[in-house]
Amino acid sequence: MNKILLPALLALALSACGTTGGTKATVEDHSGGAAATTGQAGAETTGVGAGGVAGNAMSDPRKDPASPLAKRSVYFDFDSYVVKNEYRPMLEAHAGFLKSKPELHVTLQGNTDERGSREYNLALGQKRAEAVRKTMSVLGVSDGQMEAVSFGEEKPRNDGHTEAAYAENRRTDIVYSDEK
């Protein structure tokens, strides 16, 4: 009996592993992009396009280098806390983003170069952060979504002692609370 049963079970197992030929598997496209294409071997595939894997990685516009939201620093002239007009498009983009996402908060971090006393630099850094906060408030961002703080000269972006290094350090940085 074992001589008949064993070959029958082996034949049954091998037939179960075989292909059916012509059966098509489907892959759902959740990217919202291009429609699925059908291959000859019976499998359907989708291309990875703008809405595919790359699109998911870039779904946050703040991480898109081409977006104005990727820019996070407002630079100031020496001993000034006037927001220059050149930063208005960037601040409008951040304001629009914050208005569309009321659950998000930002910290506006005012910074100065190393010249001046510690107390003076803390006050100037606060004025720079407040100037950016007021600009964004005028653009419609809720005061509850923003906090202005000063680091004075404590967080230099450039440790050099040249005018170019000082210019990099005279800034207010926009820091989103969900990205800390």
List keywords for this structure.
180 residues; four-stranded mixed β-sheet; 6 strands; lipoprotein; alpha+beta
Notes on the structure:
With 180 residues, the protein is an alpha+beta fold. Helix content is 34%, strand content 14%. It is built from 5 helices and 6 strands. It has helices spanning 2-17, 53-57, 88-100, 118-138, 163-169; strands spanning 37-38, 44-45, 73-75, 106-111, 146-152, 171-176. The strands form 2 sheets. A 4-stranded mixed β-sheet has the order 3-6-4-5. It has a two-stranded antiparallel sheet with strand order 1-2. β4 (106-111), α4 and β5 (146-152) form a beta-alpha-beta unit. The longest helix has 21 residues, at 118-138.
